[in-house]
Structure formats: structure tokens, C-alpha cells
Automatic annotation (TrEMBL):
EAL domain span: 24-278
Stretch of the intact protein here: 430 to 708 of 708
The protein's name: Response receiver sensor diguanylate cyclase/phosphodiesterase, PAS domain-containing
Organism, as annotated: Geobacter sulfurreducens (strain ATCC 51573 / DSM 12127 / PCA)
Domain of life: Bacteria
Length: 279
């Protein structure tokens, strides 16, 4: 009897492992087709000036709308896109779309704001990135200073030399750079200060703990002070409460982003927000 049970257990596990492998394969296969089938969408989350409440930027956030499935958030498919190399073409699509959207808003007479685009550190493996950005800016007509590229500390860790070349090329064009999720990686501010960066985005894990954890509050205040001394703009992400916002403002954080102000919005809703909140 025990032997039989053991065999069933074995079959159960091997069956579920096959199911997982199959699931992954299906996902990968669907991801390959998602671009051609036009299943990606960008939403835009407003970034506000902390003092005036005016919108100064819109961060483009990607999601995948698989027919017959729930919307897939980026954290559930970007890693697979990176493993398979699909991130290159997906990242290209994001850049084209976000820049074209920003130009559409300009043409509609909406107040000019930066559009922020997240880049995978893998996109820095190719020196073609600068060429691509140049091509997109030229074709869409977006002024380079309206584009902010969000990179993570990972970019500086893996291939510092290549990254430095790409960042300098893009800076010469007038594109802006911010470091996303700052504080979660291992890079020091002194290391980052060697790169021509424009802004630091304080990771939302710090912001979340501001009210409950004095250490998090102290760290957040210190990051803001040091970034300002380096001449960097500071954006706090994941601001959800008035208390967090008050703390950030009191400590000199220039810009804020989070559910307290707005969820990520579809392009029409983002345009309406811009119209209402920019005067
Ligand atoms: P991120 O760049 O740090 O983006 C901010 C994430 O925090 C977004 O999640 C946003 O919806 C969420 N968020 C904003 N405000 C709040 C808040 O007040 N509270 C909480 N709890 N969350 C908030 P999302 O859209 O799921 O994106 C997750 C990550 O996926 C992004 O983190 C970014 O690293 C990556 N990602 C998104 N779009 C792209 C893309 O086009 N390309 C690449 N390579 N990565 C992307
Ligand atoms: Mg980001
Ligand atoms: Mg972030
Ligand atoms: Mg992130």
C-alpha cells in the first residue's frame, strides 16, 4: 500500500512539474507573439512637483493584456522577457509608444511634461541603445529634454564601462536619466555621482516605512539631503499617505509619485489629469 502511495506521490509531483514547465513554455510562446498581436499597453503615472502640486512628468508603465486572461503586470513577464532576449524588441516598442504619446499630448496643447521610460539593464548591453533613442526622438519629434530614462543600479554593477559610454552619448543628446528604486541595490551615491545623472527615485520600501520606522525615516531624509548636495533631483515613489507626503516635503524632496496622487492612468485619463492638474 505504502509503495502504491509513494508512486502516486511521485506521479503527482512529476505531473505538476510538467505542468509548470508547460505553463512557462506557453507563457514564453505567447510572449513571443504579444508584440505582433498588439497586446501590450502603456499606462502613465503622474509625477508631481511637491511644492506646487503641478504635474512635471508621466512615467510609462507596461502591462500585457492577454486575451482571456487577467492583465499581466510587468513583474510577471519582464524577467522572462529578459531571459529570452525579447526585452530588446519590447523595450523598443515601449520607447516608440511613450515618445509618440508625449508628442501627441504636446500637439493637443497640453502642458509639456517629461515622459519617463523604464529601461532594463539588458538594454545597456548593446551600444545601439543611443542610436535607437536618437532615431525615436527624431522620428517622433519629441524634444530630448522631455525624455527621462529610468535605470536601476544594476546598470552600474554589471557593465560599468559600456553603461558609461551609452549614458554619456545620450546625455550629449539632452536626454535625462534617473536612478529607479534607489536604496535597494548596492551602489553608493559616491559611485553614482561619477555618472551624469539627473534624478534619484527613492524606492517605495523606504517611503512605506517612513511613519512606522524611525530608521527608514532617517535614511530617507539622508538620501534626500545627499542627493540634493550632488545636484540631483529627488523623486519619492509609492507615496500613499498624507503623512508620508508631509515628511517628504518637510525634508526637501522635490517631486512625488504614488497612489495618494494618482494610480497609473490610461492615455485618455492621463491627458485629462494633465489638463486639470497643470495650472
Ligand atoms: P517601477 O519603475 O519602480 O514602477 C513603479 C511601480 O510601483 C509600478 O508598478 C506602479 O504601479 C507602482 N506604484 C506606483 N505608486 C504606488 C503606490 O503608491 N503604492 C504602491 N504599492 N505601488 C505603487 P508596476 O506597473 O507593476 O511596475 C513594476 C515594475 O515593472 C516597475 O517598477 C518597473 O521596474 C517595471 N516596468 C514597468 N514598465 C516597464 C517597461 O516598460 N520596461 C521595463 N524594462 N520595466 C518596466
Ligand atoms: Mg520606474
Ligand atoms: Mg521604482
Ligand atoms: Mg521597480
Amino acid at each position: 500500500h505504502a509503495k502504491e502511495l509513494g508512486r502516486n506521490t511521485y506521479q503527482y509531483y512529476s505531473g505538476s512539474m510538467n505542468a509548470m514547465a508547460l505553463e512557462r513554455l506557453t507563457l514564453e510562446n505567447n510572449l513571443r507573439w504579444a508584440l505582433k498581436r498588439n497586446e501590450f499597453r502603456l499606462c502613465y503615472q503622474p509625477q508631481l512637483d511637491a511644492a506646487s502640486g503641478r504635474v512635471v512628468g508621466m512615467e510609462a508603465l507596461l502591462s500585457w493584456h492577454r486575451p482571456g486572461c487577467d492583465v499581466v503586470p510587468p513583474d510577471d513577464f519582464i524577467p522572462l522577457a529578459e531571459e529570452t532576449g525579447l526585452i530588446a524588441s519590447i523595450g523598443e516598442w515601449v520607447l516608440w509608444n511613450a515618445c509618440a504619446q508625449a508628442v501627441t499630448w504636446l500637439h493637443e496643447g497640453l502642458p509639456p511634461v517629461r515622459v519617463a521610460v523604464n529601461l532594463s539593464s539588458l538594454q545597456f548591453r548593446s551600444r545601439r541603445l543611443a542610436e535607437l533613442v536618437r532615431k525615436v526622438l527624431r522620428a517622433t519629434g519629441l524634444p530630448p529634454s522631455h525624455l527621462e530614462l529610468e535605470i536601476t543600479e544594476g546598470v552600474f554593477m554589471s557593465n560599468e564601462e559600456d553603461a558609461a559610454v551609452v549614458i554619456r552619448d545620450l546625455k550629449k543628446m539632452g536626454v535625462r536619466f534617473s536612478v529607479d528604486d534607489f536604496g535597494t541595490g548596492y551602489s553608493s551615491l559616491s559611485r553614482l555621482s561619477r555618472f551624469p545623472l539627473d534624478a534619484l527615485k527613492i524606492d517605495r520600501s523606504f517611503v512605506r516605512d517612513i511613519s512606522a520606522d524611525p530608521a527608514a525615516a532617517g535614511l530617507t531624509a539622508a538620501i534626500i539631503a545627499m542627493a540634493r548636495n550632488l545636484g540631483l533631483n529627488v523623486i519619492a515613489e509609492g507615496v500613499e499617505t498624507h503623512e508620508q507626503f508631509a515628511f517628504l516635503r518637510a525634508n526637501g524632496c522635490a517631486e512625488v509619485q504614488g497612489f495618494l496622487f494618482s494610480q497609473p492612468l490610461n492615455p485618455d485619463a492621463a491627458a485629462a489629469f494633465l489638463r486639470a492638474r497643470s495650472r
